[in-house]
Design a protein that fits this description.
Pfam families: adh_short
Oligomer: single chain
InterPro entries: NAD(P)-bd_dom_sf, SDR_fam
Keywords: Membrane, Oxidoreductase, Transmembrane, Transmembrane helix
Protein name: Retinol dehydrogenase 12-like isoform X1
Number of helices: 9
Strand order of the largest sheet: 3-2-1-4-5-6-7-8
Distance between the termini: 91 Å
GO molecular function: oxidoreductase activity
Length: 344
């Protein structure tokens, strides 16, 4: 009797194991096939009619030593543009420079120090760039941070780190360079400012009484509220910059590169069981840094032919965020930030 019972369970275990292996194989195969077709929409850069050599064009990229910034620099260097890497750490920047020169042997790539958490560093960077390059054709505001809000990090000027680096630092840098960028445009070709944003802007808010986190932040779910707020500010900064300069020869784009695995995840405390739970979603939607950079480079080389406004893009096409654009918020954020940075 006991032997029969044990045999029953052994036989059923085999059946269960076979069923589990079969189901797992089918599921993984379906995910791989689905990802293959979906990822094709992320990697269409070379199919663009604007994917052409860029000899003589100067392109500046912030945060270019890793992730999307590094991959963006590599793609532009392949097009023979002169690429300026703006990096906070000169050690990591030098490592990135050496790696890039091995991957793109005939690329014109230059490293310069840029710490977006310091107004002095930003001003020195802008001064050095303009001294070395009479023309600037593309500025890509890529650098960004996402750190736990409980750490309460600030910039040199005392601004909350997400607000200070992701928004204020790039605002100052862009305005210091914008006249040179504008003068580098021609009747035949506009110059470009590309701001790397995120669809996480839809989870952000702009509270003018709490821009610097004076009242703290409310954590909802796993999203970093300060980071989401800064991405919403990127969106409004891009929109206002577009309104001010689109008719003066400067095309402005805000681009969401999608959900990419980059160094932004280095502070994420993701537990093992959470990784298991999100694995199927990651298989479908998570992009490599290079796949994310494709949309960034596309915005850097392609004109906004449809005059899409607000000028935000994703996957090589205009993107309609859930957040409803507010003209008053856009203008006020510009004025407040201009005052903080002493920009006229």
């Amino acid at each position: 009797m006991l032997t029969n019972i044990l045999s029953f369970f052994r036989d059923n275990d085999k059946l269960l194991l076979h069923s589990l292996l079969y189901t797992t194989t089918i599921t993984l195969s379906a995910l791989v096939i689905s990802r293959y077709f979906k990822s094709r929409s992320w990697s269409k850069l070379k199919a663009s009619p604007f994917y052409k050599p860029m000899e003589g064009k100067v392109c500046i990229i912030t945060g270019a030593n890793s992730g999307i910034g590094y991959e963006t620099a590599k793609e532009l260097a392949k097009l023979k543009a002169t690429v300026v890497l703006g990096c906070r750490s000169m050690i990591r920047g030098q490592e990135a420079l050496e790696k890039l020169k091995k991957e793109v042997q005939d690329g014109q790539i230059v490293l310069m120090e840029l710490n977006l958490a310091s107004f002095d560093s930003i001003k020195n960077f802008a001064k050095n760039v303009m001294k070395q390059y009479p023309k600037i054709h593309v500025l890509i505001n890529n650098a960004g941070v996402s750190v736990p809000i409980k750490e309460k990090l600030t910039t040199k000027e005392g601004y909350e780190v997400h607000f200070g680096i992701n928004h204020v630092g790039h605002f100052l840098l862009t305005n210091l360079l914008i006249e040179r960028i504008q003068k580098s445009s021609t009747d035949m070709e506009q110059t470009k400012v590309v701001i790397v944003g995120s669809s996480l802007m839809d989870r952000g808010t702009i509270d003018f009484d709490n821009l610097n986190g004076e009242k703290g932040f409310v954590q909802k779910g796993h999203s970093n509220p300060a980071y989401c707020n800064s991405k919403l500010m990127n969106y409004y900064f891009g929109a206002e910059l577009y309104l001010k300069y689109a008719d003066k020869g400067v095309d402005v784009s805000v681009v969401c590169p999608g959900w990419c695995y980059t160094n932004l995840f280095r502070h994420a405390n993701i537990k093992f069981y959470q990784k298991v739970m999100i694995f199927p979603i990651a298989m479908m939607y998570m992009r490599s840094a290079n796949q994310g950079a494709q949309s960034v480079v596309h915005c850097a080389i392609s004109p906004n032919q449809t005059k899409h406004f607000p000028p935000i893009f994703r996957d090589f096409a205009p993107y309609i965020p859930k957040h409803e654009y507010n003209d008053e918020v856009s203008k006020k954020l510009w004025d407040v930030t201009a005052k903080l940075t002493s920009i006229q």
